Amino acid sequence: MAPVLTVLFVFMLVAAASVASRSVRTVRQGNVAVVTAFGKYRRVLYPGLNFLVPVIESVSTTVSVQNRSVELAFQAITSDQANVYFKALLLFSVLDQREETIQAVAFKFIDESSFNQTLQRTVEGAVRSYVATRKQNDILALRSEIVSSVKGHLDASLSSWGYHLQDMQMNDVVFDQPVMESMARVVASQNLLAAAENEGRALLVTKTRAAEAEGNAIRISAEADKTAQKLRGEGIALFREEAGRGISVAAREMEAAGLSSSLLLFQMWTESIKHMAEKGHGNVIFLDGSNDAYQRTLQQMTALQMSTSFNTNSSKT
Question: Are residues 278 and 296 in the same domain?
Answer without folding.
Answer: yes
